[in-house]
## 1
Amino acid sequence: MPTALITGASAGIGAVYARRFASRGYKLVLVARSLEKLEDLAAELGAAYAVSVEYIVADLTNSDQLQTVSQRLSEGDIDVLVNNAGAALLGTFEEADATSMERLVALNVTAPTLLASAVLPSMVKRGSGAIVNLGSVVSLMPQYFPGIYSATKSYMLTFSQGLSAEVAGKGVYVQAVLPAATRTEIWEKAGADLSQIPNVMEVDDLVDAALVGFDRREAVTIPPLADVGLWDTLEQARAVFPSGLGGSPAARYINHS
Ligand SMILES: NC(=O)c1ccc[n+]([C@@H]2O[C@H](COP(=O)([O-])OP(=O)(O)OC[C@H]3O[C@@H](n4cnc5c(N)ncnc54)[C@H](OP(=O)(O)O)[C@@H]3O)[C@@H](O)[C@H]2O)c1
């Protein structure tokens, strides 16, 4: 039986990932801060799917608690890491306070990076494994989402693409999942009214679509994007950049005055 470790499994997208991987026969390691929710989900999944479910109560913005999860990942038996735990921070960059931004970067950027780093050596050694990183469509259109949330999600996309290029040849699959607005608690926690947002996806639909992409080994899965040609065009534009950029400044930056 393979094992999946899912962060932010106590609610929303992470809880649905836990249900889906349990239904596929995976053993689970669930991570979040809410003990009670993790206990309830572990009991539900153990009873419904007869899989073993462990949980780790950890605040991933706390470096000691993050280290506990990294330690579990480095034990060598994790086949799938779902880097899902995350939060939103609404409002403009101008009005954002330093503590909130620091926590957001710790949760949305630092934690998934260090967790992937902890699990990767054993995956490379085995020549198999998967890392799923939750990004967001706002990373492709940051002009519609003020503040640094979209930048943290851009990191997840770039991180996934770079890591994929690095480890695909070693048998490790990396997927970036880019949801648009999805019906979870994240909005309310951030102080937003979900009823004011058009085109909200149901969380079961989001995860089921993301898993279609996972099974196809897509590098980037954007569940709400109907026209995949838009994404292909963006990727083709990226691919025209030569890998050997460097040397002299481009002619337009040479001051001849
Ligand atoms: N929902 C959307 O519209 C949407 C759109 C694009 C991308 N995403 C991304 O999808 C991912 C999941 O979001 P969601 O909508 O499912 O959010 P959610 O319903 O608010 O769930 C977030 C999960 O992360 C956990 N979490 C939050 N802070 C944590 C911390 N400091 N340490 C450990 N765990 C923590 C929460 O559990 P505890 O509170 O128990 O710790 C919960 O299990 C996030 O990365 C988010 O950015 C969501």
## 2
Amino acid sequence: MTISFDEWRARSPFYDETHEAVAQSVRKFMAAEVLPHIDQWEEDGELPRELHKKAAAAGILGLNYPEEYGGHSEGFNVFHGLTQSEELAAAGAGGLGASLMTHGIGLPPILALGSEEMKRRIAPEVLSGDKIISLAITEPSGGSDVAQLKTRVERVGNKYVVNGQKMFITSGMRADYMTVAVRTGGPGMAGISLMLIETDRPGVGRTRLDKMGWRCSDTATVYFDNVEVPPENLIGPENGGFIGIMRNFNSERLGMAHGCCAMARVALKEAMDWAQTRETFGKRLGAHQSIRIKLADCARQIGATQAWVDLCAHQHMQGKGVPADYAMLKVQATRMLEHVVREAAQVLGGASYITGSKVERIYREVRVNAIGGGSEEIMLDLAGRQMGLG
Ligand SMILES: Cc1cc2nc3c(=O)[nH]c(=O)nc-3n(C[C@H](O)[C@H](O)[C@H](O)COP(=O)(O)OP(=O)(O)OC[C@H]3O[C@@H](n4cnc5c(N)ncnc54)[C@H](O)[C@@H]3O)c2cc1C
């Protein structure tokens, strides 16, 4: 008996034939629209805008978003979303999911806290792939201590005027809209608001950042220089943005943890395929006991992490998720991925070091998972505080 990329779903109580249908549909999209081009996009440093429209047409961008805002929610739940991101991971390029699906972090604050007019104006354009939206929280002065962010907003007459900088913003070079965390009030978390900023407003500037991994995902530093924004662009109440940011982090961390499991399975599959054909010392590599043990140990760690992801996803669906769990789960998943891709690279030997192999790419993407969306230290500290320490 062998373990294939997606076979685990068939044995999980959380997945059924409807999830399999999503998997097959995304797999078709990947074969036709992504796999032939992904290496080129990695070189280009960004995804083509048409890909968003094609992904929308294939039902990918709108999956599990409300029908009234251009999504498809009928019959879908969080596990369909996880299935979809698993299939998007098959290319072994994490930048694809990060950039094609950036609306997964940019849009939810609008849908949760925005005015009805804003939801109807923004969501359909994004879910149809016509417009791209980013989430801009991190600043050059630091991303971990969100409560200290400095991008300042003043009320001048009937307008807001925004000044400041954002850093490491995914899809930031191509974004038409940004959901931006700004300071409208005093110090700390009670002075933070969320604001929609259109990137064609005078005073918005951006520069591209080159990166170790996620290379097909464009990443930007964004500058706001006296940008005038109408009051109706406020997302939720003034000075009430912090809760929206925190809520967003929970689903982002769950998604990232699942993404790590998916990427680890891709790396393991590459190593397994190699071990079945490569011969050393007169027999298949996989027939050496130490290699068998190494790869089975990777499968053990992926399985254990996936079980926790699925449990957290189930709790998330029922509104019973606990922030400490998402935080610890993300650390578990990134450390697991770090181990699995290291072992996979070891099994592939020199071949893993050549640019363009899936394992080489995933190896370069480990750190962004361990840092982005809340770094390991911050995640474990958050969990420790929720455990009543400090
Ligand atoms: C490719 C990429 C894409 C990203 N996309 C986005 C995006 O779309 N939107 C967005 O807003 N942000 C984005 N980020 C930013 C990301 O969320 C931040 O990098 C992350 O939150 C950490 O912030 P920082 O890099 O400023 O590190 P810092 O906050 O400066 O921390 C540096 C290091 O010190 C550690 N540290 C900090 N404080 C403590 C402490 N008290 N105790 C112990 N250790 C501590 C941290 O864990 C970290 O390892 C992205 C980052 C990357 C690399």
